[in-house]
Amino acid sequence: MKALNKKDLINIGIFNAVAVALYFAIGVATSGVPVLHVFGVTPIAALISGAIYLLMVMKVKKKGVFLISGIVQGIVFSLMLGLYASIVIIPLLGFIADMICGNFSAKKLLVTAYGIFMVGIYYGQIFFMLFFTKLYLSFYSGNMLAHKQAAADRITGPIVLLLTLIILAASAIGGALGCRILKKHFVKAGIVS
Question: What is the pLDDT of residues 22-37, one digit of tens each?
């Protein structure tokens, strides 16, 4: 497999900018309902951003796509949202997703890798809330503290497991839709093979 070049890094950056913008748009749209905001953003994003990630992977077709995406998104989530565990967790699961991709010909492996990556985004967001709740809540005050406290009260081991399964299912659906979109529009147009 060839190493990533400048063009690949630019493509990864562009697709990540679109994915992060979509993620933040979903976050804003769900922010009025604290429970939906905490539990719904990643599954909704997994459902509708499959085409973005699969197009990125098929456009670049080199190991490191998910790892670089994890580094970029980990930095963005850490700096913009204060989700500091994201800078480690998302790249780690991005690395695992890259290992799952194989030679980029098996769509099922690509969709599985996408699901693992989306789970990494979720774990990066809830890590401190789940394991360091008091520290996490100490960063907030007023209405935001009440919002975060309500979310922290609901984050338990069984809920994390359930949401992991929901994210994987949403990723499978989003990935399948992404594969259809790729085949119908981008393969026919010659953008990806």
Answer: 999 998 998 877 777 7
Residue 177 — φ and ψ, nearest 5°? -65, -40
> What digits encode the pLDDT tens for the residues 73-87?
999 998 987 778 889
Contact 118, 45 (CB under 8 A): yes
Look at the chain and count its residues: 193
Nearest to 114 by CA among 163, 162, 69, 62: 69
Count of helix runs (H) and strand runs (E) in the chain: 9, 0
- Strands (DSSP E) along 33-176, which ranges? none
User: Can you tell me the distance from the alpha carbon of 17 to that of 161, in angstroms, rounded to the nearest whole number?
Assistant: 29
Long-range interactions of 29-34: CB distance < 8 A, separation 24+: 34/147, 34/150, 34/151
CA–CA gap between residue 161 and residue 84 (Å, rounded): 21
Are 78 and 86 a contacting pair, CB within 8 Å?
yes
